[in-house]
């Protein structure tokens, strides 16, 4: 049943090709996690040439054929403007991820107080200072003093206002939906205290959000494990969980969740069942693994194009792969396990589909058993760690 999922622990399966849902269903059944089978961002749709309706139809067709009788969701991912909303509403999406990252002031972390004061001119400082500076703080994530509150206001104030506007417009278009707030694709991490500020200001404005995705410390790059100090992330996750527990009305969301095997035990430890994990490109990488296993000549052309296009296509992603550092002498499909190769292939998917899309899809249909087995095995590793 396609419906909002609420606070049920959930897992998002992005499918850039429209062919991965059988493998996703096989992986998620009996895990207790509510799946999102249709998940695509405006950016992904532009690069794949698909529409929100096509993404929904591809997922729904397989879900119905599989006689899936449990709740499942459809995520309109990384929506940036109110103009992004109608196409996803019309297609029947149930989960709307708003990304106000363009309105986050990343410079606020380093600005002088005088610069911050100038940027905050016209904001409701008296009201906010009375609200946030009169408390002794909440156990687990600290308390504001004047400067940290000013930084939070400048850093996230416009993003909060934009999110409120997005929620109100969506509420005019649709009655029941899950609403996620995502500030993960920004340069500056979200401190637990800033997380509290965002959640509290949205709550005060009447925004009913189901989940929130902060920008955590370290690097959550595409299709590879976490980069950073796990001990520091462990401590930070506990503080973010304390903020969420303070409200009790939403769950935490992990974006770029693909292949973050070292992180999953931490989110289960600290977040419990109040979690959502979002993946996307790893299903595409498993498609390429299937091609490397069954159609190596096609894969080699995709790889050559990826190397050619990487410097251009990486511009809108947080990745650090270096083509010069791809391990020498790797045979197929072992190349798909190399850090640098994975990121190169991940971010050049749009170029690959533009050049070879018909061939890729035709080959995957011919070798659907291999692709589905790859997906079930790969996502089994993810989902086993989240039980």
Commentary on this structure:
The chain has 387 residues and is an alpha/beta fold. It has two domains: 10-108 and 153-281, TIM Barrel (Alpha-Beta Barrel), CATH 3.20.20; 284-384, no CATH class. It is 50% helix and 10% strand. It has 15 helices and eight strands. The protein has helices at residues 21-28, 42-48, 52-65, 85-90, 113-119, 125-132, 146-173, 192-204, 230-247, 264-271, 281-294, 296-313, 339-347, 349-366, 368-384; strands at residues 10-13, 34-41, 73-79, 95-98, 178-182, 211-213, 251-254, 275-279. An eight-stranded parallel barrel has the order 1-2-3-4-5-6-7-8, surrounded by seven helices. α7 crosses α8 (192-204). The longest helix is centred in the middle third of the chain and has 28 residues, at 146-173. The protein is globular and about 65 Å long. The two termini are 22 Å apart. The mean pLDDT is 96.
Task: Please render the helix and strand layout as text.
Layout (H helix, E strand, L loop, with lengths): L9 E4 L7 H8 L5 E8 H7 L3 H14 L7 E7 L5 H6 L4 E4 L14 H7 L5 H8 L13 H28 L4 E5 L9 H13 L6 E3 L16 H18 L3 E4 L9 H8 L3 E5 L1 H14 L1 H18 L25 H9 L1 H18 L1 H17 L3
Parallel strand pairs: 1-2, 1-8, 2-3, 3-4, 4-5, 5-6, 6-7, 7-8
Helix pairs in contact: 1-15, 2-14, 5-7, 7-8, 8-9, 9-10, 11-12, 11-13, 11-14, 11-15, 12-14, 14-15
């Amino acid at each position: 049943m396609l419906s909002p999922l609420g606070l049920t622990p959930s897992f998002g399966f992005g499918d850039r090709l429209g062919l991965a849902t059988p493998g996703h269903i096989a992986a998620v059944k009996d895990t207790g996690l509510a799946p999102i089978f249709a998940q695509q961002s405006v950016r992904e749709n532009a690069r794949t040439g698909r529409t929100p309706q096509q993404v929904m139809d591809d997922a729904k067709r397989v879900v119905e054929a599989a006689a899936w009788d449990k709740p499942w969701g459809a995520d309109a991912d990384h929506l940036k403007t109110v103009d992004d909303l109608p196409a996803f509403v019309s297609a029947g999406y149930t989960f709307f991820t708003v990304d106000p990252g363009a309105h986050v002031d990343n410079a606020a972390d380093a600005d002088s107080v005088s610069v911050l004061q100038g940027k905050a001119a016209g904001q409701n400082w008296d009201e906010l200072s009375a609200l946030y500076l009169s408390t002794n703080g909440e156990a687990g994530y600290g308390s504001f003093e004047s400067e940290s509150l000013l930084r939070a206001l400048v850093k996230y104030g416009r993003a909060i206002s934009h999110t409120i506007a997005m929620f109100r417009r969506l509420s005019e278009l649709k009655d029941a939906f899950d609403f996620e707030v995502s500030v993960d694709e920004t340069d500056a991490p979200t401190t637990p205290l800033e997380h509290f500020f965002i959640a509290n200001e949205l709550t005060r404005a009447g925004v009913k959000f189901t989940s929130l995705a902060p920008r955590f410390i370290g690097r959550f790059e595409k299709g590879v494990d976490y980069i950073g100090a796990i001990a520091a992330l462990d401590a930070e996750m506990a503080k973010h969980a304390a903020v969420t527990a303070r409200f009790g009305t939403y769950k935490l969301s992990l974006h770029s969740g693909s292949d973050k095997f070292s992180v999953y035990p931490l989110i289960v430890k600290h977040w419990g069942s109040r979690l959502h994990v979002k993946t996307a490109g790893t299903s595409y990488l498993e498609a390429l693994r299937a091609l490397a296993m069954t159609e190596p000549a096609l894969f080699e052309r995709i790889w050559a194009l990826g190397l050619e296009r990487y410097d251009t296509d990486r511009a809108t992603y947080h990745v650090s792969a270096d083509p010069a550092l791809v391990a020498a002498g790797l045979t197929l499909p072992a190349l798909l396990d190399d850090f640098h190769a994975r990121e190169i292939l991940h971010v050049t998917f749009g170029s690959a589909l533009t050049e070879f899309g018909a061939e890729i899809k035709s080959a995957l249909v011919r070798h659907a058993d291999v692709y589905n087995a790859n997906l079930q095995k790969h996502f089994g590793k993810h989902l086993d760690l989240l039980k």
